[in-house]
Design brief:
Strand content: 5-15%
Order of helices and strands: HHHEHHEEH
CATH architecture: Up-down Bundle
Helix content: 40-55%
Radius of gyration: 17 Å
Amino acid sequence: MLIRDALLPEFDQEMATTRRLFERIPDDKLSFKPHPKSMDMGTLATHLSELTDWTTETIGKDSIDLAGFDPSTRKIVASRADLLAKFDNSVAKARAALATAENDQLMQPWSLKSGDKVFFTMSKVAVLRAFVFNHSVHHRGQLSVYLRLNDIPVPAMYGPSADEPGM
């Protein structure tokens, strides 16, 4: 069995769920933050959208080097329309990369580093599961709380929600 054949249905489901959350973010709430230490909704949504980019970065490279990365220079989405366009573009590229990935490629080691410092090395498939799928679930959970705190209906994700009980 090809690893990609096991990952693709999960990828599709997780990306569709993320998109449903993004569709509910009103433009006038992008600056909302539930606590001074929290990211605002626009920054959180941008970060969640960018996690999908890790798919192509992981499959196509042996590492990501964060040396010189300045998070303050990131372009934060200015509207829901911008967010959805950015996300849809990223998902299309990520799915295409995943759909052609071979088992030996996905089992190769991949590292996250900053200059000479290596934070971790694991197989590419483990990176995809941990930093695309699971990390996205974590931030979707945060985003769903942001929606709830603003009385915005939370979509069903892995079963019914209080706002979509029949799902």
